[in-house]
Amino acid sequence: MHLSKTFIPTLRETPQDAEIASHRLMLRAGMIRRVSGGIFTFLPLGLRALRQVERIVREEIDRAGAIEVLMPGLQPREIWEQSGRYDLMRDVMFRIHDRQGHDLALGPTHEEVITGLVAHEISSYRQLPCTFYQVQTKYRDEIRPRFGLMRAREFVMKDAYSFDASWDAADGSYQAMYDAYERIFARCGLNVKVVEADSGAMGGQWSHEFMVLADSGEDGLVECNGCTYAANLEKAERARGAPPENSADNGCPSPEKVVTPETTTIEAVSALLDIPAQRLIKTLIYTADIQPVAVLTSGDREINELKLARALGCRELTAADAATVERVTGAPVGYAGPIGLSIPIHADLELRGASDYVCGANQADTHTLHVDIERDVTVTGYADLTNARGGDGCPQCDDGVLQAKRGIEVGHVFKLGTKYSEAFDARYLTAEGEQKPLVMGCYGIGVTRTLQAVIEQHHDANGICWPSSVAPYKVVLLPLNLSHDATRETTERLSAELTAAGWEPLIDDRDERPGVKFKDADLIGYPVRVVISERSLAAGGVEIKARAADKPQTLPLAEAMSQIGEFLS
Ligand code: ATP
Ligand code: MG
After folding, report:
1. Looking at residue 509, which CATH number applies to its domain?
2. Given 6, 117, 135, 546, which is the most exposed site by the fewest CB atoms within 10 A?
């Protein structure tokens, strides 16, 4: 391919609105252009790279035995009513209506469509197990589209859905997808950490996320430095530690009130009293299924509402409004404390044995010093209610310490169970003639997000450094002077040989200064660059350089081919 015949509009300047390196580089390398927030056009170079990721995804998902289909983006409201998600997905789903006034949605995911299909088409245990997949466009009205393709409103996903006769059998389908995901991300050159993820209402550990480790990642995770434990922040647990000795008299002075005008935040109290945040008790009032409850954590911890809801065994959990806080504490917001409250009090396990702490006094402009939780507070129960963080003990091994990392979620595998098969009456007949619901799994890879994650992990100050597996072109040929006959002939010969070997090169035939061509080659990040010039030919051949290498080497044409092969392997 000649550069003059395609369209690769590289940019010199750094785009202002792009916050992370991979987004900037996709714009600068002429791979994508923004149409509107979270909506992009793929230019030829971006499209070629996307096709490479799609090819790897298809090869591995096919290898795992899944069958490709293509489902519609446009979906009728009725199927979303049938699964009970029409309202649940309200915030994220684009809703439209047709000329007759019928409601439709632009599919954010495809559990409804696939289960409706399978309910009609699969009826016997003889047809099981089976997994269907597609590579297709999803639409989601994200609150904050950002970082280019990372969080878009229109994006390409590979989604797969497995159907099995039993929960045990479903484990096999799950494992096959899990293994395929590991191979896909390895082939894309990604360093991925698989973490346990929350599986929502299903319980159990049947959900894993595939995280590309990157400081710019939107997701927090922890991993143990002593064992294999890794989990995303929503899910991560921490070591419980030994319960403290039961010492009624540990020398803590009696509680004492102190005036703290206009100090309604942890930071303000900590600063005013000169006491570190971890010695403050943060008291939050929640409404759990219409019941107010108080929740205590140390001042430097973040509540994890999933853990809290599980500990309380409630269905709906919301932070109480100001009126409720004032009613149950008798004080304005910012001065709640646990002493003397008449509602249930749930404390984070870290507060067991907390002594000589500070808390709100349930009185305006007042806090209480010298609080001993066992002595002064009636705690209903202790549980793990806060996010794990770096430095916490590992919940799985004895002396491991959790390390905090950031990641980009590129894939998610999820054991669904029978929620959708029940809703769509997707049953099969067992060998014994019994009707049973199909057991489902669902599996997603953000294909466009994966593409950008590759760049996030593979770039340097000059541009992208593609792993050859997903490079839009593996080799760029830079003839420096095309009016020189030998240069032109050598370029054409090399191009033909490379094409025959399956590495279709891009020939930069633009009438540009060599400096411009070199800069663009580094920016776009072709794995191998070959310069053909009067000088190189006089020196006996062509100049070859791998993207990561410091210096080129001059080789005769015959040797150049095998060296390129080595660089690309
Ligand atoms: P996130 O927590 O990042 O919003 P999710 O849990 O909503 O992801 P799933 O519904 O499991 O994601 O979708 C499967 C995959 O699709 C994700 O692992 C991710 O790689 C990708 N994905 C999800 N939302 C987006 C988006 N807005 N833009 C690009 N890719 C996305
Ligand atoms: Mg999401």
Report:
1. 3.40.50.800
2. 6
